[in-house]
Amino acid sequence: MQSLRELLQAALMEDLGTYGDITSRAVSAEKKQAVGRCIVKRTGILAGIQVAQQVYDLIDKDVKIDIHFRDGDVCQAGSVAFEVYGNAYTLLIGERLVLNLLQRLSGIATFTRRYVEAIEGTGCEVLDTRKTTPLWRALEKWAVTLGGGKNHRFGLYDQFLIKDNHIDLTGSVSAAIEAVLRYRTEQNLSAPIVVEVRNLREIAEALRYAKEIDRLLLDNLSPQQVARAVEYIGGRLPVEVSGGITPENARAYAEAGARYISAGALTHSAPALDISLKIQPLQ
Question: Model's pTM, two decimal places?
C-alpha cells in the first residue's frame, strides 16, 4: 500500500505534468514571495490541515504555515483556517491539491457530524463503509472519526462480512457461517464476523450461532421493520442497520433499537465544504 507521502507526490505530479504550472511561470511567480490565506466560507468541521502541511513540505521545505484552527475544530464561515508564507510559485502549484483535500475531507467530517448529532443520546454509533475514493480510504475514514463517527472494516481482510451474495453462493445463512467459522479456525484468524440477514427466517438461522458471531446487519429495512426484528432478536446480538439512512431518518433507526448505523453516504455523497485559498504578494 502506498504511503500518504507517495500518494501526495503522485497527486502533485498529476497536476504538474512535464512542464509545471505554465501560467504561473509566465507571470514570473517564482520571483515573488506571497501569503496564502485559507478562508472557510461555510461553517463546518475542519479536516486536512495536517495534510496541507505535508503537501507544502513536499514542494518546498522553506514554506511557513501559521495555523489558526486544527483538524476536528468547528470553523465558522469567514474564518481563516491558516496562513501560508513562501515563494508564490510554490503556493500556486500546491493550491488545488490542498483545497481538494481540505474541501473533501472537511465535507466528510461535517456530514458525519450531522448523523452523529441526529442520534445523540440514543447509544447508537455511526459507522462508515468501504465506499471511498480509491487509494484515499485512510484519509476519508480519518475524516469520519473527526466528525464523531467510527470506522467499519478498513478492507476485505479485517472483518468477515457475510452478505446476501455469500449466502446465495453457499445456499443458506447456516452454510455461509459454517464456512467462515471453519476458515477462521484453519487460518488462525481473529477477525469479527458480521452477518447480513434479510428476513426473520434468516435472523432465526443466524441466531443459532449467536455465540460465534459478533452482530447482525439489517439492510434496506424501514424503522418499523427494524423495530420488529430487534424485538425478535431480544438482545442476543447487537444490530447494525444500513441502506438509505440519512441524517433526517437516522434517529428513527436508532430509536428502533439499532446499535450501529452504517452509511456509505458519509464518504460517497458528502458535500464538499466551501473553502478558498487567496494568494497575495508580500510587500
Answer: 0.96
